Amino acid sequence: MEKSEEAGTISLNALRRAAIAMDCDVAYFLLPRKSLEATVRARAQALAAQMARRVDDSMTLEAQAVGKEFQAETAEELTEELIRRLDRGLWNQLDESDLPGTAPSIARSR
Predict the structure, then answer these.
(1) How far apart are CA 105 and CA 12, in angstroms?
(2) What pLDDT was estimated at residue 80?
(3) What residues does each domain of the chain span?
């Protein structure tokens, strides 16, 4: 069990067996790094930016580009709407370029 623990591969069954042997319970949970409000806002901003960028990409193909300022305004409005509705789509997979700490890729595949 110690080797598994060091390697980060310990199983829940192994933890349960150890807990039983020590007359303990196993508590398995995720500990947030920031507040729920901050998590929801960051997620909404990333999703809104993705949506606004896709609309701009489409419009650019039709020679109707709206510009970065309008795109930013649209993204902010979408962010507030997603937060207001607590849209379950917030937790859908985002493009890799929309994840925190990831630089946008030059060519996006569709």
Answers:
(1) 38
(2) 92
(3) 1-31, 33-100
How far from 70 is each of 33, 45, 108, CA to CA, in Å? 33, 15, 21
pTM given for the model: 0.56
Q: Among residues 88, 73, 96, 106, which one has the least CA distance to residue 40? A: 88
Neighbouring residues of 55: CB distance < 8 A, sequence distance ≥ 6: 66, 71, 74
User: 75 exposed, middle or buried (CB, 10 Å; 0-12, 13-18, 19+)?
Assistant: buried
One DSSP character per residue, 7-22 reads HT---HHHHHHHHHHT
- CB contact set of 89 (below 8 Å; sequence gap of 6+): 47, 82
Own/partner pairs for 52-60, CB < 8 Å, 24+ apart?
52/78
pLDDT digits (tens, 9 = 90+) for 38-64: 999 999 998 888 888 887 777 777 777
